[in-house]
Amino acid sequence: MEKVPAELSALVRPSIQPYMISLMKYDPCAEIKKLKIPALLVQGTTDIQVSIADAEKLSAANPKVKKVVIKDMNHTLKKCTVMDSRSQQPYYNDPKIPLHEELVPCVTEFIAGIR
After folding, report:
1. Do residues 66 and 41 make contact, with C-beta atoms less than 8 angstroms apart?
2. What percentage of the chain exceeds 70 in pLDDT?
3. pLDDT, tens only, 53-80
4. Whose C-alpha in 33, 53, 67, 108 is 20 to 30 A from the C-alpha of 61?
5. Contact yes or no for 70/42 (Cβ under 8 A)
6. C-alpha distances in Å from residue 3, one per residue of 8, 9, 12, 106
């Protein structure tokens, strides 16, 4: 077996492999299309794991889903202006970095609007 690069070890460690394999059987667009309940799709412009194009595909699969794009928010839901993985590493590891300031109002407004 080849040695896994240190930066990928959290994603491919043996304990998480069954979970990751189980996710592969789902098509996110097919799953979101099935929703009959209110749903919020929040996408950050500096997310290096899920692209704006992915969010657009999800939104197109179910036009009833509310889509919000938050400028300078990354995959960890934190304010981040850089797009490279090495520069984003602290955002994944430092719990003291706060959530993006637009995120909580966005979620609470969505929840408050559900009837």
Report:
1. yes
2. 97
3. 999 999 999 999 999 999 999 999 999 9
4. 108
5. yes
6. 10, 10, 11, 42
Beta pairing class for 66-70 and 40-44: parallel
**How much is the pTM?**
0.83
Q: Do the beta carbons of residue 107 and residue 40 sit within 8 Å?
A: yes
Which of 62, 68, 60, 63 minimizes the C-alpha distance to 40? Answer: 68
For residue 99 the two structure tokens come to 């959530």
Across 1-115, where does the E strand assignment appear? 40-44, 66-70
Q: Is 30 exposed, middle or buried (0-12, 13-18, 19+ CB in 10 A)?
A: exposed
